[in-house]
UniProtKB/TrEMBL annotation:
Keywords: DNA-binding, Transcription, Transcription regulation
SUPFAM superfamilies: Homeodomain-like, Regulatory protein AraC
Source domain of life: Bacteria
Protein name per UniProt: Helix-turn-helix transcriptional regulator
PANTHER family (alphabetical): HTH-TYPE TRANSCRIPTIONAL ACTIVATOR RHAS-RELATED, TRANSCRIPTIONAL REGULATORY PROTEIN
Record domain HTH araC/xylS-type: where: 173-270
UniProt keyword Transcription regulation present: yes
InterPro entries membership: AraC-bd (IPR003313), AraC_XylS_family_regulators (IPR050204), Homeodomain-like_sf (IPR009057), HTH-like (IPR037923), HTH_AraC (IPR018060)
Keyword check for Protein biosynthesis: no
Alphabetical list of Pfam families matching this protein: AraC_binding, HTH_18
Amino acid sequence: MTTSQEQRHIFYDSCLGIEAYQLSGIVQKFPNHFHECYVIGFIEGGCRHLWCRESEYDLSRGDLILFNPKDNHFCSPMNGELLDYRALNIPVPVMKKAAADITGKEFVPQFTVNVVYHSDITTSLADVYNAIVTDASPFEKEEAFFFLLEQILKEHSAPYEEHNGVFLDSAIADTCEYLKEHYSENITLEELTEQIHLSKSWLLHTFTKQTGVSPYRYLQSIRLEEAKKLLEQAVPPIDAAARAGFTDQSHFTRFFKDFTGLTPKQYQKIFTESGRDTTAGTEE
C-alpha cells in the first residue's frame, strides 16, 4: 500500500486535558509496550490480533479496548486488513478527578477487562472523539466525556486496590523505581543487578514475567513518555531525545513512530499549533 492511503490524526484538547487520535488505513504492527495513561479505544474498521497481559484477542469493528496505565500490549493486522482505530489517551490525574466527580469517591480506577466485544459504549466514545475533532463547546465536550466515563466506570472498572492483578516482587518493584529515576542515564544490566544483588538471568526472566516487558523495553517506554512530556513543552525533538536518554536522534525518531504511529515533530505540532489536527505522512 502507499502512504497516501494512511491517515494518522491526533488532537490535544486543552479543555479536557486529553489526546484524541485516529489511525486509518494502517497495517503497521505495534510492538510490545505500555502507556503511563489510560487508553480507551475502539475498532472502527478492519481486524487486529491483540496481545495484552498474557491474553490474546481477535478484534473487529465495534470492539472496545481498555488499557490501564502500564498494561503491556502489542498488536498486528489480521489477513492484511487495514485498521481504522480511534482512541483517547487520558492522564491519570484527569481520570482520578473525573472518577471522583462521577462517583463522589476518591479512588484510582482500574479497568477490569481489556476488551469488550461489540460494545455499545463505542458510540459514546465516538461522541467524545467527534466533539474534540469539531472543536465543540467546552460544555458539549465535558458532557460527552463524563457520559463515556460514567458508563465505563459503572460497567468495567473497580478501585485499584480491589482489582490489582499485578504483583511485583520487591526486587522487581525496586528495579522499576530505579529505571524511572535514572532513565536519562546510560544504565547497564550489570548496574541493575548490583542494585538488587541478584543474577542477570533471574532479573531478566522475573522482570519480564511480572511486568510483561523486558527491563530494556520498560526503560525505553519510560524514556518515550518523558520525551513526549518534553515535546509538549516545545522542547526541540533533538533536545528532547537527549534529555530523555536516547543517544541517537534517528533511533529516537524510529522508536517514537513505531510505538505512537507519529514522528516526534508530528506529535509536537498538536501542542504548538493549538491542539488542532496533525496528519502523519512521511515526515521524519
